Amino acid sequence: MDNLDLNRLPKHIAIIMDGNGRWAQEKGQDRLYGHFHGVQSVRNIVEAASEIGIKYLTLYAFSTENWDRPAAEVAGLMSLFVDTIAKEVPDLHKNNIKLHFIGNLSLLPDDAKAALQNATQTTANNTGLELIIALSYSSRWELIQAIKNIAEKVQTGQMQPEDIQEATLEAALSTSAFPDPELMIRTSGEYRISNFLLYQLAYAELYFTETRWPDFRKKDLIEAILDFQSRERRFGKTSLQVQTNE
């Protein structure tokens, strides 16, 4: 913490929480054992992000591709999600954290839908860390939905094709209320984005770690932020332009 430059924190951090299953298998346990322990990492990292002063934190909890996993694992994940939300929302609310959910939520079972609706309503007026959970999420799905939304507006005469700008697409995304992530972290040694925020990560710094998600803690988050702060973010400019603010 002492080495962090609190004036150069990433406003928005996105995390692909990978490695629960492999962590469990390495310990001779089933995959759900890993997901259960992954919840402890979520709690720790949310608390740490809030303490450090991060404004937005997006966690990739479940992708649309994950629906193709074995039925028992999917059912166990949904049950774990519902139980976790019920247990964690009171503390999240107490700590002034605001919850959001993005993704194709229509695919969720009814009890999960009810849990996230309650979580959203309970924390709606909080003003601290904004915690965004990507659940049943796919960036390609999100982009297709955005394009359909824009196409419908063109078809009904609400806008013309020449009116479409970057801001048009950004406003149609499920993340329209949040700034783009500046730092994306993926755990467990995989070097892929895996259909996660493909548009929004265009200029994010990418950080990969071998640490499995159930072992990822505050110190690991700080190491990722320190690495972020060591990089020069040029956005297409030269180093000289960045240094002289030209």
Which structural traits does this protein have?
246 residues, alpha/beta, Undecaprenyl pyrophosphate synthetase, six-stranded parallel β-sheet, 8 helices, 6 strands, 43% helix, 14% strand, globular
Give the averaged pLDDT, no decimals: 94
The counted number of beta strands is 6
Derived structural class: alpha/beta
The share of residues in extended strands comes to 5-15%
Radius of gyration: 19 Å
Put simply, the count of helices is 8
Question: Order of strands in the sheet with the most strands?
Answer: 3-4-2-1-5-6
Largest sheet: 6 strands, parallel
Which stretches of 5+ consecutive residues score pLDDT under 50?
A: none
What distance separates the N and C termini? 31 Å
Q: Please identify, by name, the CATH architecture.
A: 3-Layer(aba) Sandwich
Enter the CATH topology name: Undecaprenyl pyrophosphate synthetase
Determine the fraction of residues in helical runs and give it as a percent range. 40-55%
Shape: globular
The helix/strand series, from N terminus to C terminus, equals: EHHEHEHEHHEEHH
Task: Return the domain count.
Answer: 1
